[in-house]
Every structure is written in structure tokens, then in C-alpha cells.
Write a structure and sequence with these properties.
The chain is about 35% helix and about 25% strand. By secondary structure, the chain is of the alpha+beta class.
């Protein structure tokens, strides 16, 4: 399990004063990906047009390039504005298999200071049922501190 308290402090120190969204996403993707063995793919899908996500900074194997809001777990997070905690991706209706190794997934909406969804953070695991509400709460706090302040 990631040491979220230390991770939050590290990310805050690394991103202090940075306002470029892509630089922030790249830094978070790297730090989060290497913080926990459960994290097999860690990255951002950016809102680039109404109803459309495109790949952003990530760590891991290739991701899908484009995801509409009406498709998959990432689309559901962007569409609803709610965290998607998926213990078994095969049981999620319309799951998009960007990587065959993915067994479970957590996707969190990323909001800017105005509260608008600018992206989603997608973390995939090659382990089933890898993520908990504790992960969701800690990751939401990190995202809010980085992008919404």
C-alpha cells in the first residue's frame, strides 16, 4: 500500500509553484506509479473536447489514445464526476481493454480551481480487487491539492 502521507508531501514539494497542467500530470503519474506495486498503469486522460478524453502523461504500457465519455471506466468518471472503483474490470459494462493484463481499476475525476473536470486519473492493476475507498480518499486529496488550489 502506498504511503499516501509521504507521497502527498513529496508531490507538493515537487509541484510547488508549477501551473502547467501537463507538467503536473507528468509528475503525478511518475510519483504515483512508482509508489505502489499494485499500480500497473498510471496516467491521465485529458478532456480535449466536449465528451472526449485523450491520453495524457502516463507510466506503464501503451494506453488507449481516445476515450469518449460514454465508453468505459474513464468515460464514466468523466461523465458522472464520481470516482469509479472497479474490483473486476471484466464485470464492468463497456470496459475498454487497453491492456489485457488489467484486472481492476480506479479512475478519479480531476477538477481545476473552478471545479471543472479537466481530466481523469486512471490507475490499473494486474491484481483483482486491488483498490479501496482509502485509495480513493487519499488520491482525491492529492488531486485536489495539485490541480484545484
Amino acid at each position: 500500500m502506498a504511503d499516501y502521507a509521504t507521497l502527498a508531501k513529496t508531490i507538493a514539494a515537487l509541484t510547488e509553484g508549477e501551473t502547467d497542467t501537463v507538467a503536473l500530470m507528468a509528475t503525478l503519474a511518475c510519483e504515483l506509479h512508482h509508489a505502489d506495486d499494485r499500480f500497473d498503469w498510471t496516467g491521465f486522460y485529458r478532456v480535449t473536447a466536449p465528451g472526449l478524453l485523450k491520453i495524457g502523461p502516463y507510466q506503464g504500457g501503451h494506453g488507449c489514445l481516445v476515450i469518449p465519455f460514454d465508453k468505459g471506466v474513464c468515460g464514466a468518471a468523466a461523465r458522472t464526476g464520481e470516482v469509479q472503483l472497479v474490483p473486476d474490470v471484466d464485470a464492468f459494462p463497456g470496459h475498454i481493454a487497453c491492456a489485457s493484463s488489467t484486472r481492476s481499476e480506479i479512475v478519479l475525476p480531476v477538477r481545476n480551481a473552478a471545479g471543472e473536470i479537466i481530466a481523469v486519473l486512471d490507475i490499473d492493476s494486474d491484481q483483482p480487487d486491488a483498490f479501496t475507498e482509502e485509495d480513493a480518499t487519499a488520491l482525491e486529496a492529492i488531486l485536489s491539492a495539485t490541480f484545484a488550489s
